[in-house]
Amino acid sequence: MSEQLGTLEELPEDYRADMTAAGVAPLWPMMRNVLPHGAPNPVTRPGFWSYAAIRPLLQRAGELTPVEKAERRVLVLSDPGRGAGAMQATASIYLGLQLLLPGETAPAHVHTPSAVRIVVEGKGGYTVVDGEKLPMEEGDLVLTPGGEWHDHGHEGSEPVVWLDALDLPLFVYLEGSYATEGPLQAQRNRPDASQVEYLSSGLAPTRKHGAGTRRYPMMRYPWTRTEAVLNEMAAYTDGDVAELDYVNPETGADVLPTMGFTAMRIGAGQVDNPPLRSSSAAFHVVKGRGTARINFQTIEFGPKDTFTAPVFADIRIAAADDTYLVRVHDRPLQDKLGYYEERAK
Ligand SMILES: [Fe+2]
After folding, report:
1. For 98, which of 60, 131, 143, 167 is 20 to 30 Å away at the CA?
2. Quick one: 12 and 135 in the same domain?
3. What is the Å distance from ligand 1's center to 203 Cα?
4. Does 331 map to a domain?
């Protein structure tokens, strides 16, 4: 393994010109950019988004731009490593805060990337996925998987805000991202699957002989139940942070092909000090406050704030109050590609 590879400047000018004319370039001067030693060299930097700072901007967007002119009224959380306007929060994760005002609807569409909504505030919002009406209560996790028609509506009296997490950057990179628009969906007149078929974990509807199961059987994960389970677990974790992965209730697999979601409870005074992970992550604070140290950056976080960690980041989260987070990560993608890894600190 050589430390010092040849540079472009060492090569004769006529040779460089002839290479350019032939449409080729030497690998060796650029090789360490794409194959650094030992660990990736991420462009992504830790990010922090204060909800108190963003909420007035969202409100203003509601005054300035009617939903008919926006289709989706969203402020995108841009990775500081890529700069203002970057359509991604990490290499693979897009995050945006979306506002829907009472009486508004966001028209139906379908697209190749998958999305998840984590509800930040407000009552009365709903998402319709494949005809199923999914209520959106604070902290709920609602899936709109790639290829599934979805639209949003609002029957309440106060603004509704949710955090969108999508694998959009990956689809843009693959030149595979596109959407198709359509009319609002007819809604089925029954509660969503989390209230009917999958009300209790460990119980699934009996399979009819020869019939398969739906690819995405449950699209809504109510927060009240998640928090109750985290609290039960916390009593028996021997000081460890209580964590729950969101899974497909029929298969136990991650809920989406590339993105994973983990609910966390860090008790007051407790510290989460995970190993270095090859996955990138975003942490959304459902409740609580504390201090996060991501590499060399220190973040004081409170309820509804969001922060991110690049791949192999040194993460340490100390909770001042009982703190509930949802971690969005790309481990499922890395698992599928066969390179997910954890390293001891
Ligand atoms: Fe969408």
Report:
1. 131
2. no
3. 30
4. yes
Instruction: For residues 59 and 180, give the distance between their C-alpha atoms in angstroms, rounded to a whole number.
Output: 28
pTM over 0.90: yes
Distance 283 CA to ligand 1 centre (A): 21
Q: What is the distance in A from the centroid of ligand 1 to the CA of 5?
A: 46
- 136 Cα to the center of ligand 1, angstroms: 15
Q: Domain count of the chain?
A: 2
Residues 6+ positions from 124 with CB-CB distance below 8 Å: 102, 154, 155, 156, 157, 158, 160
C-alpha of residue 26 to centroid of ligand 1, in Å:
42
Q: Give the model confidence (pLDDT) of 182-199 as tens digits.
A: 998 999 989 999 999 999
CA dist 271 to 227, 278, 318, 319, 320, Å? 19, 21, 4, 6, 9
